[in-house]
């Protein structure tokens, strides 16, 4: 009987455990379902400006839902919009007190602290300090410095000593803000507060203020502040500011003086920017670079000047000598990797394959992952093939495909590995929609849920530093150009690229306008046309280049008018369908003249048919690779590689 009783009790315990677990799962699923439904309804009212109704609806999101924190946040925003700051503070405080570790916690505490400051609640100071301690690298921590400065100045005291101490602390907060965010929202306000305090400013302080004025486009004020600094420390800022003011002669004067006497302790990025401005101030780049070379010995920046000079050299032997001198003088400098790459290519083009191979090994060992690495690895494969080391050649090509999958050289490596598939392995796309770039997020997929609910503003606030999410939001708002550029820059910053099925690639290479491209492609490869469209205009139908090319396919008006006459197209060059159609027809005409070879057609699309036919006769080359690498126009050479890289990426993604 006892055994039977124990067995019965065990069954009861198991049943209750299963029931409890089932109830918990059901209740959680129910809470989540109701949370999504109520949040969606509330968000619709919020977007229409019906904040009182939205407040009520956000309050219906169950406590068990993962959307409860953002619902409380939205209630706080609703309360702020109807001018009930005390109620908003209570809602923000619920999030803060819950100990939430999601991305909504820091913005909630910061928003609460700002409202407390507005109503003169003494607890604001405590929360601003906590934000700085708990989220030190966030934008909220930087902004908190500004508010803490204001709080120090607002503390009444009869003690003169305490007042002076408060002013000292306020000054430190305002200067800290400027150090961390010269271009920030409160930078000019911080400067105004500093000026009100009338402190004795050091040279560093004056330069700090000048940089903030410069970052905010206040160039005249920056000049006044710079005049209170020493030229030895501020020469590059003097130069940059004068260029912004349009005073090229003064900018050039400060550049030459600074490079000769004061460049030793200047940050390299400042020197490079000043040099670029200097070169741009001359009628031609060559004139500016020649003038810089004539300055002679300088403490810092000489490597960049020498590098620019080598890029301008046309004759191959002189070019090789120039890069050799640069590499030997600055073997570990900023431009040594590119110099070594150019020496490597010079030996390759001279058919000195063993010399080139030696330089290639050195480059791969010394610079394992730099901009020129894909090219060096690819041509090491070509050298191995020419030396009849076929397995080694294939190994190099596969290395390019694995390490640099989205590069132009991956496209070329694929061709060399699979020549039977032809030069252009992709003939059409299977378009897929641009979607939120992550399948999962760090905080229980909260950001993903908010994204799919359409709460773009909150997602944008929670993910200010994620360029892919900012790109997606821009895409959703139909700002396609901004979206593509943001995503491109974000992908460039990744040292290891994700596989092509990663959703972020669709933001970098969206299929916007592909439906039109596919209809008007004629006999052209539509992916090539799509790649040209992307690289020419980044999907902006109204863009005009510095030489007057217009629209999505960046056609010159004369070229467009010629196509219009032949094919009876609309006269409006900016019309999307007409512009893409004309671009396709122009591409077809170039193709006929260049034997149907797309790589040469792409070259002519940028450099002109006359230049390409001239290069055919003047350049010494054995194959397509050697032709492309010797194109004398850097812009055209880079253009060909960009378009084919984009073609390759589109084909792999779609």
Structure description:
- The chain is mostly helical and 654 residues long.
- Among the domains are: 1-121, Serine Threonine Protein Phosphatase 5, Tetratricopeptide repeat, CATH 1.25.40.10; 316-418, Serine Threonine Protein Phosphatase 5, Tetratricopeptide repeat (Alpha Horseshoe), CATH 1.25.40.10; 446-508, no CATH class; 514-653, Lysozyme (Orthogonal Bundle), CATH 1.10.530.10.
- 70% of the residues lie in helices and 0% in strands.
- It has 35 helices and no strands.
- The protein has helices at residues 2-47, 51-58, 68-81, 85-97, 104-118, 123-134, 139-154, 160-180, 187-197, 203-215, 219-226, 231-244, 248-261, 268-280, 285-293, 302-312, 316-329, 336-349, 353-366, 373-386, 390-403, 408-417, 446-453, 456-462, 467-476, 480-492, 504-508, 514-520, 526-537, 557-567, 576-593, 598-607, 609-618, 624-629, 634-653.
- The longest helix has 46 residues, at 2-47.
- The chain is globular.
- The model is unreliable at 19-28 (pLDDT under 50).
Topology:
Blueprint: H1 2-47, H2 51-58, H3 68-81, H4 85-97, H5 104-118, H6 123-134, H7 139-154, H8 160-180, H9 187-197, H10 203-215, H11 219-226, H12 231-244, H13 248-261, H14 268-280, H15 285-293, H16 302-312, H17 316-329, H18 336-349, H19 353-366, H20 373-386, H21 390-403, H22 408-417, H23 446-453, H24 456-462, H25 467-476, H26 480-492, H27 504-508, H28 514-520, H29 526-537, H30 557-567, H31 576-593, H32 598-607, H33 609-618, H34 624-629, H35 634-653
């Amino acid at each position: 009987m006892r055994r039977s009783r124990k067995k019965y009790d065990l069954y009861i315990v198991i049943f209750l455990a299963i029931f409890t677990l089932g109830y918990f799962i059901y209740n959680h699923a129910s809470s989540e379902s109701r949370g999504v439904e109520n949040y969606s309804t509330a968000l619709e009212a919020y977007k229409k400006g019906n904040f009182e109704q939205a407040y009520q609806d956000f309050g219906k999101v169950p406590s068990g839902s993962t959307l409860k924190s953002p619902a409380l946040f939205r209630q706080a925003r609703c309360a702020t919009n109807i001018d009930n700051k005390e109620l908003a503070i209570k809602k923000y405080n619920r999030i803060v007190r819950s100990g939430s570790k999601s991305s909504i916690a820091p913005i909630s505490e910061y928003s609460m602290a700002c409202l407390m400051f507005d109503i003169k609640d003494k607890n604001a100071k405590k929360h601003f300090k906590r934000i700085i301690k708990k989220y030190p690298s966030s934008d909220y921590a930087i902004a908190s410095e500004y508010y803490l400065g204001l709080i120090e100045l607002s503390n009444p005291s009869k003690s003169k000593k305490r007042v002076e101490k408060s002013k000292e602390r306020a000054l430190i907060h305002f200067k800290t803000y400027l150090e961390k965010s010269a271009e920030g929202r409160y930078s000019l306000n911080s400067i105004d507060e500093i000026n009100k305090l009338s402190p004795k400013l050091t040279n560093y302080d004056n330069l700090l203020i000048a940089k903030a004025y410069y970052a905010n486009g206040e160039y005249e004020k920056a000049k006044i502040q710079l005049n209170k600094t020493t030229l030895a420390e501020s020469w590059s800022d003097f130069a940059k500011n004068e260029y912004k003011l349009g005073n090229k002669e003064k900018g050039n004067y400060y550049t030459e003086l600074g490079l000769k006497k004061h460049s030793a302790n200047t940050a390299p990025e400042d020197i490079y920017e000043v040099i670029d401005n200097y070169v741009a101030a001359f009628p031609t780049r060559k004139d500016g670079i020649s003038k810089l070379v004539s300055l002679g010995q300088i403490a810092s920046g000489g490597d960049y000047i020498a590098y620019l000079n080598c890029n301008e050299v046309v004759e191959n032997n002189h070019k090789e000598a120039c890069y050799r001198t640069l590499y030997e003088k600055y073997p570990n400098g900023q431009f040594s990797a590119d110099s070594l790459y150019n020496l490597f290519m010079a030996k390759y083009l001279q058919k000195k394959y063993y010399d080139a191979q030696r330089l290639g090994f050195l480059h791969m060992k010394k610079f394992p992952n730099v901009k020129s690495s894909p090219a060096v690895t690819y041509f090491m494969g070509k050298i191995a093939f020419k030396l009849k080391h076929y397995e080694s050649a294939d190994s190099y090509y596969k290395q390019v495909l694995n390490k640099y999958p989205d590069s132009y050289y991956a496209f070329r490596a694929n061709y060399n590995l699979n020549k039977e598939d032809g030069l252009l392995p992709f003939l059409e796309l299977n378009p897929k929609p641009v979607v939120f770039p992550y399948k999962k997020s760090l905080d229980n997929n909260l950001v993903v849920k908010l994204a799919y609910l359409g709460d773009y503003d909150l997602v944008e606030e929670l993910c200010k530093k994620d360029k892919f999410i900012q790109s997606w939001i821009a895409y959703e708002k139909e700002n396609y150009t901004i979206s593509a550029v943001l995503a491109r820059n974000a992908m460039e910053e990744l040292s290891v690229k994700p596989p092509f099925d990663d959703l972020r690639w669709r933001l970098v290479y969206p299929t916007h306008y592909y439906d039109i491209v596919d209809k008007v492609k004629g006999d052209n490869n539509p992916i090539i046309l799509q790649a040209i469209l992307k690289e020419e205009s980044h999907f902006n139908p109204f863009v005009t280049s510095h030489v007057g090319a217009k629209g999505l396919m960046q056609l010159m008006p004369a070229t467009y008018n010629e196509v219009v006459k032949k094919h009876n197209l609309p006269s409006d060059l900016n019309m999307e369908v007409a512009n893409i159609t004309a671009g396709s027809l122009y591409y077809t005409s170039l193709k006929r003249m260049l034997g149907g070879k797309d790589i040469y057609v792409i070259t002519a699309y940028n450099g002109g048919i006359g230049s390409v036919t001239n290069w055919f006769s003047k350049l010494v080359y054995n194959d397509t690779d050697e032709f492309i690498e010797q194109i004398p126009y850097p812009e055209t050479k880079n253009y060909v590689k960009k378009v084919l890289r984009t073609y390759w990426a589109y084909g792999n993604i779609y």
